[in-house]
Structure formats: structure tokens, C-alpha cells
Design brief:
The structure holds 2 protein chains of 2 kinds. Chain A has no helices and 11 strands. By secondary structure, chain A is an all-beta fold. Chain B is built from no helices and 11 strands. In chain B, the strands form 2 sheets. In chain B, strands 2, 4, 5, 9, 10 and 11 form a 6-stranded mixed beta sheet that branches. In chain B, strands 1-3-8-7-6 form a 5-stranded antiparallel beta sheet, with no helix packed on it. Chain B is globular and about 40 Å long. The chains are: A mainly beta, B mainly beta. At the A-B interface, strand 5 and strand 10 of A face strand 4, strand 5 and strand 9 of B.
Chain lengths: 113, 112
């Protein structure tokens, strides 16, 4: 079974802090994704990566950056956390290819106070 | 604008009935289609994938794809209270990147 592990289930941070969310997958997947999910807005793609050190902006990249130094690990960084970044953050991974699904981690519920 | 549309519901069905969930998508060239189930407070879980026109069955679940009409549906037979969840339709409109666009989800309630 695919295992996508997010470092924290719940996280509370303060405005202005730099926040790191970590995601690790154990299936040698090329593609990794970061989403946020908010009520009424659905899943929105923040960034994705299809290879080590490669990244592409998703639909809502403002205020976020990412890092992929190793194939199995994809980090999401909130450079200066703001209250409007309070959300559920979901990491997913998948194989390269048109017919490949994404597999999700358990999510991190992040609160910015 | 690439879009995936779902009726948000809630869709309420009695236990044992067939639940029918529908999804339409904007890009005629879309290649692959997925259904995810998401329980409240949990992450999405893949339940079905479909790539060709027609039906694909897996246990109590049947996915149906009609590329000419640009819709995909999910049927759940013999619905159980444990099927109560939000069902997300996801479509690959970007080929090999594996990037998906998700619908907003349909909330299904199965009443005992």
C-alpha cells in the first residue's frame, strides 16, 4: 500500500512565523502535490513537483514556497504565516503518467493565531 | 477555464438503495477520471478510476464514463450508512504530470 506521511496532524502557530509542513512518501513516486482544503472552496492546488528540485505553481501559490531536495520528501513553507492560511493542508503523491491517481496523506490541520 | 462540476448535495438515500453521483468536466481531451471518498475530518481516499467509455465495476461501486457528453458518474449499490461521506470527482486534464482538478464534492447521506 502507498504510504504518504505528513509530519503533524494538528499544528498551531502565530502570525508572522515561518512554518514548515513536511510530507514523505515511500513508493518512489515522481509527482508530489500540496493542496489546501477549505469549506465551500474544495481542494485547491498550491504547488506540485514532478522531480527532485523541480516545482510548479498551482492555483494559489501566493504566500507559500516548496522544497524538494529528495524524491521522497516534499516540504511546504509558509514564509510569514497569516490568519488566512488557517486551513487543512493535504499532501499527495503519484506516479508520472496520464492514468495515475494521487494518494493522499492524513492531512495537517493548521491554525494560525 | 478548466472545471469539474458536481452537485454539492446533500444527496440522501435510504439504506439498501442505489446512490447515483454525477460529475461533468469542461475539457474534452481529458484522459483519466477518479472518484475519491472523504469522510468528515479525514483525507480523500481513492475508490475508483476509469479511463475508457463505458462502465467499470468494483464490488458495490460502478463508475460510468461518457466522453462525448463529458460526464462521469459513480453508482453505489446497496448503500450502507458507512457510505455516508463526501465523494470527490477528479479529472486529469494535463496528461503525464498527473495533475488533477477536483470537483467540490457531493455529500451523500445514507439513512438507516
Amino acid at each position: 500500500d502507498v504510504k504518504v506521511t505528513q509530519s503533524s496532524r494538528y499544528l498551531v502557530k502565530r502570525t508572522g512565523e515561518k512554518v514548515f509542513l513536511e510530507c514523505v512518501q515511500d513508493m518512489d513516486h515522481e509527482n508530489m502535490f500540496w493542496y489546501r482544503q477549505d469549506p465551500g472552496l474544495g481542494l485547491r492546488l498550491i504547488y506540485f513537483s514532478y522531480d527532485v528540485k523541480m516545482k510548479e505553481k498551482g492555483d494559489i501559490p501566493e504566500g507559500y514556497s516548496v522544497s524538494r531536495e529528495k524524491k521522497e520528501r516534499f516540504s511546504l513553507i509558509l514564509e510569514s504565516a497569516s490568519t488566512n492560511q488557517t486551513s487543512m493542508y493535504l499532501c499527495a503523491s503519484g506516479l508520472w503518467g496520464a492514468n495515475q491517481p494521487q494518494h493522499f496523506g492524513d492531512g495537517t490541520r493548521l491554525s494560525i493565531l | 477555464q478548466k472545471e469539474v462540476e458536481q452537485n454539492s448535495g446533500p444527496l440522501s438515500v435510504p439504506e439498501g438503495a442505489i446512490a447515483s453521483l454525477n460529475c461533468t468536466y469542461s475539457d474534452r481531451g481529458s484522459q483519466s477520471f477518479f472518484w475519491y471518498r472523504q469522510y468528515s475530518g479525514k483525507s480523500p481516499e481513492l475508490i475508483m478510476s476509469i479511463y475508457s467509455n463505458g462502465d467499470k465495476e468494483d464490488g458495490r461501486f460502478t463508475a460510468q464514463l461518457n466522453k462525448a457528453s463529458q460526464y462521469v458518474s459513480l453508482l453505489i449499490r446497496d448503500s450502507q450508512p458507512s457510505d455516508s461521506a463526501t465523494y470527490l470527482c477528479a479529472v486529469n486534464m494535463w496528461g503525464n504530470t498527473g495533475k488533477l482538478i477536483f470537483g467540490q464534492g457531493t455529500t451523500l447521506q445514507v439513512k438507516p
